[in-house]
Design brief:
The protein is α+β, with helices and mostly antiparallel strands. The chain is built from 4 helices and 5 strands. The longest helix is centred in the N-terminal third of the chain and has 17 residues, at about 25-40. The protein binds coenzyme A.
């Protein structure tokens, strides 16, 4: 698989572009696959129609202003996406503009060919151009492959979320 990558480490035949409304049905199918994968890892994510609708509602109206959706196309088919948003830290925490990578998914056909890395580089540049000083992403501890992927992209752990839940009755 690695020989499909060019000398610069980019993927031959994969084009990255900002998504438009026409891409949302395909991106929705990819998101449903992502949700099912994460559910299988024990991440408390819903994978039903209502969850999808609510996910689309969380960004679709703000595309190009506070939310950004990039897709990777291979042979005319959208095979991967990355959704990001801009958020502002509270003033008492420095008031910085932060780029948050909300979700990324690469179709299993295309994995290991640096599509994910290319999407992340594109998003970092886009978010920096929009004024972000730092880029953040949450990954579930159970998703060991994702944690390795983020580290390979130069991300380092800054915060950990410790969670307590009442014991089951
Ligand atoms: C994580 C994901 C986006 C990676 O996309 P990808 O296009 O396959 O990754 P790349 O080919 O760009 O990988 C770049 C580097 O990340 C690391 N990496 C990627 N996948 C990895 C894996 N499964 N295990 C360990 N390291 C991995 C490697 O260092 C790799 O560099 P190398 O090819 O020189 O070894 C993809 O596997 C995916 O969509 N997974 C399911 C969804 C998911 O978990 N999303 C993240 C939620 S936080």
């Amino acid at each position: 698989m690695a020989d499909s990558a060019t000398a610069s480490g980019e993927v031959a035949g994969v084009g990255i572009r900002l998504a438009g409304e026409a891409d949302l049905p395909r991106v929705s199918r990819l998101w449903s696959a992502l949700a099912a994968d994460e559910q299988a890892l024990g991440v408390p994510i819903r994978a039903n129609e209502r969850a999808l609708e609510s996910w689309l509602g969380s960004f679709a109206r703000h595309l190009g202003r506070f939310t950004f959706l990039w897709v990777a196309e291979h042979e005319g088919v959208v095979k991967a996406f990355l959704l990001a948003r801009l958020k502002t830290r509270p003033v008492y925490l420095g008031g910085e503009l932060i780029g948050e990578l909300c979700s990324i998914y690469v179709d299993p056909d295309l994995r290991g060919l640096r599509t994910g890395a290319l999407l992340v580089r594109t998003a970092i540049r886009g978010l920096q151009d929009a004024g972000a000083n730092a880029i953040e992403v949450d990954a579930h501890e159970a998703n060991a492959a994702a944690c390795k992927f983020w580290e390979a992209q130069g991300f380092r752990v800054g915060f950990r979320t410790y969670r307590w839940r009442p014991p089951p009755q």
